[in-house]
Amino acid sequence: MFLLVLYCVLSLSSVVYSVNVERGSSENGFLWIMAKQLDRLENKVQEMQKQYSTEIKSVKETLLKQSPSIVTFLARLVSPGDIAAKATVKFETIKENIGNGYNSGTGIFTAPTKGLYHFTASARQSRSGYLHLGMFRNGEEMAVSVAMDYQSLTIGTTFTLQSGDRVYVKNIWSRASGIVGAGQTYFSGSLLHKM
């Protein structure tokens, strides 16, 4: 039995070898047809690889175009008033918003792309007392500044953001603070380097 199996395996190997050497030979019709089918499949796989490679390249180019390389915004506070304790300042008038990262309804900038950003906020206290503002990234306080009795403050900081990270300015004092509007209070940011 063992010898019979060995004989069949060796015979089949030699037939496959001869078919590989003499493709197109009609002596072994079934194996010749299989070899031709394999050739067609190999060609089809190569065509598909070329097609998918081109499509993947096209998708990458589209994504790069959609991911903005210029991101900048400037939003101003026009309406004066009080900022509640621990509240986010909503700079309601957008002067510039390339990349559509800033939302005036929430006061939050959301990074449209990963990169190194620079932010600045400036505000003026509208009455005697304190104006204590902080700049936050995803809930983490990044920088703070304090103004007293009708004085101004400025916060400037640079840090990296992942796409979707949020940056905002918040009253970090435990009381409401008066803040001047009329465009004298603003929040701005720009992408310095896309990563």
SSE blueprint and pairings:
Blueprint lengths: L1 H20 L7 H38 L5 E6 L3 E3 L9 E6 L3 E2 L4 E3 L4 E10 L5 E8 L2 E9 L3 E10 L4 E6 L5 E3 L5 E10 L1
Antiparallel strand pairs: 1-3, 1-12, 2-11, 4-5, 5-10, 6-9, 6-12, 7-8, 7-10
Structure described in brief:
By secondary structure, this protein is of the alpha+beta class.
Structural class: alpha+beta
User: Unreliable segments (pLDDT under 50, ≥5 consecutive)?
Assistant: 1-17
Count the DSSP helices. Answer: 2
Instruction: Output the helix-strand order.
Output: HHEEEEEEEEEEEE
Amount of beta strand: 35-45%
Share of helical residues: 25-40%
Average pLDDT reading: 82
C-alpha termini separation: 68 Å
Largest beta-sheet details: 5 strands, antiparallel
Order of adjacent strands in the largest pleated sheet: 3-1-12-6-9
